[in-house]
Design a protein that fits this description.
The chain is an alpha+beta fold and 316 residues long. Helices cover 17% and strands 29% of the residues. It has six helices and 16 strands. The chain has helices at 33-37, 96-100, 109-129, 149-152, 186-198, 210-216; strands at residues 39-42, 47-52, 79-84, 86-95, 157-158, 167-169, 172-174, 205-208, 225-228, 234-237, 242-245, 248-254, 263-266, 271-283, 290-303, 310-312. The strands form five sheets. A six-stranded mixed β-sheet has the order 5-16-13-8-12-11. A hairpin with a 2-residue loop joins strand 6 and strand 7 (172-174). The longest helix is centred in the middle third of the chain and has 21 residues, at 109-129. The model has no long low-confidence stretch (mean pLDDT 92).
Length: 316
Protein backbone atom coordinates (compact mmCIF):
# COMPACT_ATOMS: atom_id res chain seq x y z
CA UNK A 1 0.00 0.00 0.00
CA UNK A 2 0.94 3.65 -0.44
CA UNK A 3 2.74 5.56 2.30
CA UNK A 4 0.50 8.35 3.68
CA UNK A 5 1.59 11.87 2.81
CA UNK A 6 4.01 13.66 5.15
CA UNK A 7 5.06 10.44 6.89
CA UNK A 8 8.56 11.02 8.21
CA UNK A 9 10.86 8.29 6.92
CA UNK A 10 14.38 7.48 8.06
CA UNK A 11 15.67 7.27 4.51
CA UNK A 12 15.12 10.96 3.90
CA UNK A 13 16.13 12.51 7.20
CA UNK A 14 19.23 14.57 7.87
CA UNK A 15 21.21 13.77 11.02
CA UNK A 16 20.57 10.03 11.30
CA UNK A 17 23.66 8.66 12.94
CA UNK A 18 25.64 5.86 11.33
CA UNK A 19 25.86 2.51 13.09
CA UNK A 20 29.51 1.51 12.73
CA UNK A 21 30.63 -1.19 15.12
CA UNK A 22 33.84 -0.83 17.11
CA UNK A 23 34.59 -4.45 16.39
CA UNK A 24 36.87 -5.14 13.42
CA UNK A 25 36.40 -8.62 11.94
CA UNK A 26 40.05 -9.64 11.80
CA UNK A 27 41.01 -12.56 9.59
CA UNK A 28 44.75 -12.95 10.01
CA UNK A 29 46.06 -16.24 8.55
CA UNK A 30 49.40 -15.90 10.31
CA UNK A 31 50.15 -19.25 11.95
CA UNK A 32 53.78 -20.29 11.40
CA UNK A 33 54.04 -23.98 12.39
CA UNK A 34 57.59 -24.50 11.11
CA UNK A 35 59.04 -21.51 12.95
CA UNK A 36 57.09 -22.45 16.07
CA UNK A 37 58.54 -25.97 16.05
CA UNK A 38 62.22 -25.11 15.66
CA UNK A 39 64.54 -23.28 18.02
CA UNK A 40 66.57 -20.11 17.80
CA UNK A 41 70.24 -19.29 18.27
CA UNK A 42 72.32 -16.10 18.18
CA UNK A 43 74.54 -15.41 15.17
CA UNK A 44 77.38 -12.91 15.02
CA UNK A 45 77.95 -12.39 11.33
CA UNK A 46 75.96 -12.11 8.11
CA UNK A 47 77.44 -15.46 7.08
CA UNK A 48 76.76 -17.98 9.82
CA UNK A 49 78.55 -21.34 9.85
CA UNK A 50 78.39 -24.62 11.75
CA UNK A 51 79.71 -28.16 11.40
CA UNK A 52 78.02 -31.47 10.69
CA UNK A 53 79.35 -34.90 11.59
CA UNK A 54 78.46 -38.54 11.03
CA UNK A 55 79.54 -42.06 11.99
CA UNK A 56 81.46 -44.47 9.76
CA UNK A 57 79.40 -47.22 8.18
CA UNK A 58 78.47 -50.08 10.51
CA UNK A 59 80.72 -53.12 10.06
CA UNK A 60 79.57 -56.51 11.29
CA UNK A 61 83.00 -57.99 10.50
CA UNK A 62 84.74 -55.79 13.07
CA UNK A 63 86.88 -58.50 14.68
CA UNK A 64 90.47 -58.36 15.95
CA UNK A 65 92.92 -61.24 16.40
CA UNK A 66 94.03 -61.79 19.97
CA UNK A 67 97.29 -60.00 20.68
CA UNK A 68 97.38 -58.41 17.20
CA UNK A 69 98.68 -54.89 16.69
CA UNK A 70 95.80 -52.51 15.94
CA UNK A 71 96.40 -50.19 12.97
CA UNK A 72 95.02 -46.66 12.87
CA UNK A 73 91.66 -46.22 11.21
CA UNK A 74 90.53 -43.45 8.93
CA UNK A 75 88.21 -41.09 10.79
CA UNK A 76 86.00 -38.77 8.71
CA UNK A 77 86.38 -35.06 9.27
CA UNK A 78 83.52 -32.74 10.15
CA UNK A 79 81.88 -30.80 7.32
CA UNK A 80 81.65 -27.02 7.55
CA UNK A 81 78.50 -25.46 6.13
CA UNK A 82 76.75 -22.10 6.37
CA UNK A 83 74.14 -19.70 5.09
CA UNK A 84 73.55 -15.97 4.81
CA UNK A 85 71.29 -13.74 6.85
CA UNK A 86 68.34 -11.90 5.34
CA UNK A 87 66.91 -8.56 6.44
CA UNK A 88 63.12 -8.55 6.64
CA UNK A 89 61.54 -5.08 6.80
CA UNK A 90 58.18 -3.32 6.97
CA UNK A 91 57.61 0.45 6.87
CA UNK A 92 54.44 1.92 8.34
CA UNK A 93 53.41 5.53 7.77
CA UNK A 94 50.34 7.31 9.16
CA UNK A 95 49.43 10.96 8.70
CA UNK A 96 49.13 13.23 11.71
CA UNK A 97 45.50 13.79 10.75
CA UNK A 98 44.49 10.14 10.79
CA UNK A 99 46.08 9.79 14.21
CA UNK A 100 43.95 12.47 15.92
CA UNK A 101 40.63 11.84 14.18
CA UNK A 102 37.97 9.66 15.82
CA UNK A 103 38.05 6.15 14.39
CA UNK A 104 35.95 3.04 14.90
CA UNK A 105 37.65 0.00 16.35
CA UNK A 106 41.04 1.55 17.09
CA UNK A 107 42.48 4.67 18.65
CA UNK A 108 45.73 4.78 16.67
CA UNK A 109 46.06 3.83 13.03
CA UNK A 110 49.84 3.74 13.42
CA UNK A 111 49.69 1.31 16.34
CA UNK A 112 47.22 -0.98 14.62
CA UNK A 113 49.16 -1.14 11.36
CA UNK A 114 52.39 -1.74 13.27
CA UNK A 115 50.77 -4.73 14.99
CA UNK A 116 49.69 -6.09 11.61
CA UNK A 117 53.17 -5.56 10.15
CA UNK A 118 54.66 -7.72 12.89
CA UNK A 119 52.40 -10.59 11.91
CA UNK A 120 53.18 -10.03 8.25
CA UNK A 121 56.92 -10.24 8.82
CA UNK A 122 56.54 -13.66 10.47
CA UNK A 123 54.54 -14.81 7.45
CA UNK A 124 57.32 -13.57 5.16
CA UNK A 125 59.88 -15.52 7.19
CA UNK A 126 57.82 -18.71 7.18
CA UNK A 127 57.33 -18.44 3.42
CA UNK A 128 61.07 -18.03 2.85
CA UNK A 129 62.05 -20.77 5.26
CA UNK A 130 59.72 -23.34 3.64
CA UNK A 131 60.85 -22.52 0.10
CA UNK A 132 63.50 -23.98 -2.16
CA UNK A 133 65.16 -20.59 -2.57
CA UNK A 134 68.95 -20.43 -2.80
CA UNK A 135 71.09 -18.41 -0.43
CA UNK A 136 72.53 -15.13 -1.70
CA UNK A 137 75.63 -13.40 -0.36
CA UNK A 138 75.13 -9.71 0.35
CA UNK A 139 77.13 -7.13 -1.60
CA UNK A 140 77.09 -3.34 -1.65
CA UNK A 141 74.13 -3.45 -4.05
CA UNK A 142 72.58 -6.91 -3.50
CA UNK A 143 70.44 -7.95 -0.55
CA UNK A 144 71.58 -11.04 1.32
CA UNK A 145 69.12 -13.92 1.34
CA UNK A 146 68.93 -17.05 3.46
CA UNK A 147 68.34 -20.47 1.89
CA UNK A 148 64.96 -22.16 2.24
CA UNK A 149 64.65 -25.58 3.83
CA UNK A 150 63.97 -27.36 0.53
CA UNK A 151 67.25 -26.09 -0.92
CA UNK A 152 69.30 -27.82 1.79
CA UNK A 153 67.99 -31.36 1.32
CA UNK A 154 70.12 -33.90 -0.56
CA UNK A 155 70.17 -37.16 1.42
CA UNK A 156 66.52 -38.14 1.83
CA UNK A 157 64.71 -36.93 -1.26
CA UNK A 158 62.14 -38.30 -3.67
CA UNK A 159 61.97 -36.25 -6.87
CA UNK A 160 60.08 -36.49 -10.13
CA UNK A 161 61.87 -37.29 -13.35
CA UNK A 162 64.64 -34.78 -14.24
CA UNK A 163 64.46 -33.24 -10.76
CA UNK A 164 67.81 -32.52 -9.11
CA UNK A 165 69.03 -31.60 -5.64
CA UNK A 166 70.36 -28.22 -4.63
CA UNK A 167 72.51 -28.35 -1.50
CA UNK A 168 75.48 -26.59 0.06
CA UNK A 169 78.68 -26.00 -1.89
CA UNK A 170 81.41 -23.34 -1.62
CA UNK A 171 79.50 -21.08 0.73
CA UNK A 172 76.19 -21.06 -1.13
CA UNK A 173 73.10 -23.25 -0.85
CA UNK A 174 71.76 -23.86 -4.36
CA UNK A 175 68.09 -24.20 -5.25
CA UNK A 176 66.80 -27.63 -6.35
CA UNK A 177 65.77 -28.21 -9.96
CA UNK A 178 62.04 -28.96 -10.37
CA UNK A 179 61.18 -32.36 -11.82
CA UNK A 180 58.16 -33.94 -13.45
CA UNK A 181 55.15 -33.64 -11.17
CA UNK A 182 53.40 -36.76 -9.86
CA UNK A 183 50.72 -37.69 -7.35
CA UNK A 184 51.48 -37.64 -3.62
CA UNK A 185 51.30 -41.24 -2.41
CA UNK A 186 51.84 -43.02 0.88
CA UNK A 187 54.54 -45.17 -0.74
CA UNK A 188 56.59 -42.09 -1.67
CA UNK A 189 56.32 -40.75 1.88
CA UNK A 190 57.25 -44.10 3.43
CA UNK A 191 60.38 -44.25 1.29
CA UNK A 192 61.55 -40.82 2.50
CA UNK A 193 60.74 -41.60 6.14
CA UNK A 194 62.73 -44.84 5.93
CA UNK A 195 65.70 -43.01 4.40
CA UNK A 196 65.65 -40.39 7.18
CA UNK A 197 65.48 -43.10 9.85
CA UNK A 198 68.36 -45.02 8.24
CA UNK A 199 70.48 -41.86 8.34
CA UNK A 200 69.71 -41.31 12.02
CA UNK A 201 66.91 -38.74 11.89
CA UNK A 202 63.59 -38.90 13.70
CA UNK A 203 61.11 -36.77 11.73
CA UNK A 204 58.25 -35.47 13.84
CA UNK A 205 56.39 -33.39 11.23
CA UNK A 206 55.39 -33.62 7.58
CA UNK A 207 54.58 -30.08 6.45
CA UNK A 208 52.42 -29.51 3.37
CA UNK A 209 49.96 -27.00 2.02
CA UNK A 210 46.25 -27.60 2.55
CA UNK A 211 45.64 -29.54 -0.67
CA UNK A 212 48.44 -32.04 -0.02
CA UNK A 213 47.32 -32.37 3.61
CA UNK A 214 43.93 -33.51 2.31
CA UNK A 215 45.64 -36.06 0.05
CA UNK A 216 47.63 -37.38 3.02
CA UNK A 217 44.42 -37.72 5.04
CA UNK A 218 43.43 -40.48 2.63
CA UNK A 219 46.47 -42.64 3.37
CA UNK A 220 45.71 -46.08 4.83
CA UNK A 221 41.93 -45.65 4.57
CA UNK A 222 41.61 -42.92 7.18
CA UNK A 223 38.96 -41.10 5.15
CA UNK A 224 36.59 -44.06 5.58
CA UNK A 225 36.52 -44.10 9.37
CA UNK A 226 33.38 -43.29 11.34
CA UNK A 227 33.07 -42.40 15.03
CA UNK A 228 29.96 -42.65 17.19
CA UNK A 229 29.24 -39.06 18.29
CA UNK A 230 26.16 -39.80 20.43
CA UNK A 231 22.58 -41.01 19.91
CA UNK A 232 21.73 -40.95 16.24
CA UNK A 233 24.88 -39.08 15.28
CA UNK A 234 27.92 -40.24 13.32
CA UNK A 235 31.12 -38.25 12.90
CA UNK A 236 33.05 -38.88 9.68
CA UNK A 237 36.80 -38.79 10.22
CA UNK A 238 38.06 -37.23 6.99
CA UNK A 239 41.41 -35.96 8.21
CA UNK A 240 44.55 -37.31 9.81
CA UNK A 241 46.78 -35.41 12.21
CA UNK A 242 49.07 -38.24 13.33
CA UNK A 243 50.57 -40.79 10.95
CA UNK A 244 51.90 -43.90 12.68
CA UNK A 245 54.78 -44.93 10.45
CA UNK A 246 57.11 -47.91 10.80
CA UNK A 247 59.63 -45.48 12.30
CA UNK A 248 57.46 -43.63 14.80
CA UNK A 249 54.60 -41.17 14.89
CA UNK A 250 54.69 -38.24 12.51
CA UNK A 251 52.35 -35.26 12.67
CA UNK A 252 50.73 -34.11 9.44
CA UNK A 253 50.90 -30.30 9.63
CA UNK A 254 49.12 -28.02 7.16
CA UNK A 255 50.95 -24.75 6.58
CA UNK A 256 49.47 -21.91 4.55
CA UNK A 257 52.93 -20.88 3.43
CA UNK A 258 54.22 -24.30 2.35
CA UNK A 259 54.81 -24.88 -1.35
CA UNK A 260 52.16 -26.73 -3.32
CA UNK A 261 54.73 -29.15 -4.80
CA UNK A 262 56.42 -30.52 -1.69
CA UNK A 263 55.88 -32.58 1.47
CA UNK A 264 58.65 -31.59 3.88
CA UNK A 265 59.50 -34.17 6.55
CA UNK A 266 61.23 -32.41 9.43
CA UNK A 267 63.18 -33.34 12.53
CA UNK A 268 62.84 -29.97 14.33
CA UNK A 269 65.91 -30.65 16.48
CA UNK A 270 68.12 -30.08 13.43
CA UNK A 271 66.79 -26.67 12.39
CA UNK A 272 66.89 -23.28 14.03
CA UNK A 273 66.49 -19.59 13.27
CA UNK A 274 69.78 -17.77 13.65
CA UNK A 275 69.03 -14.30 15.01
CA UNK A 276 71.56 -11.62 14.19
CA UNK A 277 69.33 -8.61 14.79
CA UNK A 278 66.12 -9.37 16.67
CA UNK A 279 62.84 -7.78 15.61
CA UNK A 280 62.84 -4.06 16.36
CA UNK A 281 60.51 -1.11 15.75
CA UNK A 282 62.21 2.24 15.24
CA UNK A 283 60.92 5.72 14.36
CA UNK A 284 62.03 7.07 11.00
CA UNK A 285 62.90 10.71 10.43
CA UNK A 286 59.85 12.91 10.15
CA UNK A 287 59.81 14.74 6.82
CA UNK A 288 56.25 16.02 6.76
CA UNK A 289 52.80 15.53 8.21
CA UNK A 290 53.19 11.84 9.01
CA UNK A 291 54.69 9.50 11.58
CA UNK A 292 56.78 6.65 10.18
CA UNK A 293 58.02 3.43 11.74
CA UNK A 294 60.57 0.88 10.52
CA UNK A 295 60.17 -2.74 11.61
CA UNK A 296 63.20 -4.91 10.90
CA UNK A 297 64.86 -8.20 11.72
CA UNK A 298 67.95 -9.90 10.31
CA UNK A 299 67.86 -13.67 10.57
CA UNK A 300 68.95 -16.89 8.86
CA UNK A 301 67.40 -20.35 8.62
CA UNK A 302 70.05 -22.81 9.80
CA UNK A 303 69.88 -26.47 8.73
CA UNK A 304 72.07 -28.09 11.38
CA UNK A 305 72.16 -31.43 9.56
CA UNK A 306 70.18 -31.93 6.37
CA UNK A 307 70.34 -35.74 6.66
CA UNK A 308 67.82 -35.59 9.54
CA UNK A 309 65.01 -34.32 7.27
CA UNK A 310 63.69 -35.09 3.82
CA UNK A 311 61.21 -34.21 1.10
CA UNK A 312 58.74 -35.76 -1.29
CA UNK A 313 59.05 -33.24 -4.10
CA UNK A 314 57.38 -32.43 -7.41
CA UNK A 315 53.83 -33.20 -6.34
CA UNK A 316 50.75 -32.45 -8.42
Amino acid sequence: MAVPADTIQNVGRVGVREDLSDRIAELFPDETPFMNAIGTSPVNNTYTEWQTDSLVQANGNNAAVQGDDTPNQNRPNTVRVGTHTQIFTKVISASTTVEWTNKAGRRSELARETMKAGREIRRDMETRFLSGSASVAATASVAGQTAGALAWLTSNVSRGGSGANGGFSNGIVAAPTPGTQRNYTEQLLKGVLQSIWTNGGNPAMVITNGAQKQVAAGFAGLADQRVDAGPGRIRIVAGADIYVSDFGEVQFVPDRFATARDALAVDPEYWDVGIGDALKIEPLAKTGLAERRLMRAEVALRCLNQAASGVVADLL
